[in-house]
Amino acid sequence: MSSAFDFSLEPLKNFLALYDEAVKARVPDANAMVLSTVALDNRPSSRVVLYKQITRGELTFFTNYNGRKSLEIANNPNVSLNFFWPSLEQQIRIEGRAEKILRSESEAYFKTRPRLSQIGAWASEQSQKIKSFEYLEDQVKFFEKKFSGQDVPCPENWGGFRIVATNYEFWFARQGRLHERYVYQKNGSAWERSLLSP
Ligand SMILES: Cc1cc2nc3c(=O)[nH]c(=O)nc-3n(C[C@H](O)[C@H](O)[C@H](O)COP(=O)(O)O)c2cc1C
Predict the structure, then answer these.
(1) Which domain holds residue 92?
(2) Would you give the DSSP letter of residue 176?
(3) Catalytic residues
(4) Into how many domains does the chain fold?
(5) In terms of Cα–Cα distance, which of 192, 168, 6 is closest to 92?
(6) Which of 20, 40, 142, 149 sits a CA distance of 20 to 30 A from 58?
(7) Of 32 and 1, which is predicted with more confidence?
(8) What is the pLDDT of residues 92-146, one digit of tens each?
(9) Which segments within 24-132 are labelled E, that is strand?
């Protein structure tokens, strides 16, 4: 078990303590997490997104609301997240329901992004087929011109999702594959705690 972990605490507190430790240990891309969604035909798909903030007590990532993952979430909000920090031999699994954060919350975060990322949010119709990479570069030029001399507004179709967590698992590697697995499961407003066999 990591020294930052205390099973008697709420899972979010443990996540934040371990995340802080990972950042201090310079784990590359410590905020990268695999997000899995499920499509209408029940097929799962996964991709990496970045954990950016806690919004009203839940982990939050930002994306295009018209992209594939967002459309899948609109149909089925059940998602899973997975963090793997190889150098610390730790894995954190989170399951829950994704929900859009408030427009004002997305706008506040959008303001903190570098200008090129803000322009990119306008230029990219995420998950759509495009004819060439040049087309994307032309879109960037178009929006740079359109917003020249002014702040780039947050596109209507861009924002955050918070994952309202129902399950957490904290996994710590141990010798002989006798790994430690600490599980929290939400029951009403309480967290039930269990240990799992590796
Ligand atoms: C390290 C890394 C970080 C990423 N962060 C994000 C992110 O925060 N938001 C996002 O929409 N896509 C992010 N992506 C791109 C996604 O993995 C994915 O390609 C994109 O969101 C389109 O997914 P979709 O078509 O399933 O919607 C990231 C990719 C990598 C490799």
Answers:
(1) 11-111+156-196
(2) G
(3) 177
(4) 1
(5) 168
(6) 40
(7) 32
(8) 999 999 999 999 999 999 999 999 999 999 999 999 999 999 999 999 999 999 9
(9) 32-38, 44-50, 53-55, 58-64, 78-85, 90-100
Does any ligand 1 atom lie closer than 6 A to the CB of residue 88?
A: no
What is the CATH number for 30?
2.30.110.10
Residue 161's pLDDT band (cuts 50, 70, 90): very high
Q: Does any domain span residue 177?
A: yes
Residue 181, SS3? strand
pLDDT of residue 122: 97
Q: What is the DSSP letter of 188?
A: T
Q: Is residue 189 domain-resident?
A: yes
Residue 61 lies in a domain: yes
pLDDT-derived band at 172 (thresholds 50, 70, 90) equals very high
What pLDDT score does 96 carry? 98
110 lines ligand 1 (CB under 6 A): no
Question: Mean pLDDT across the stretch 173-193?
Answer: 95
- Find the angle CA(108)-CA(109)-CA(113) to the nearest 5 degrees: 120
Give how far the C-alpha of residue 130 lies from the chain's centroid of Cα atoms, to the nearest Å.
26
> How does DSSP assign 15-52, residue by residue?
HHHHHHHHHHTT-TTTTEEEEEEE-TTS-EEEEEEE--
Token pair 């097929």 is found at 43
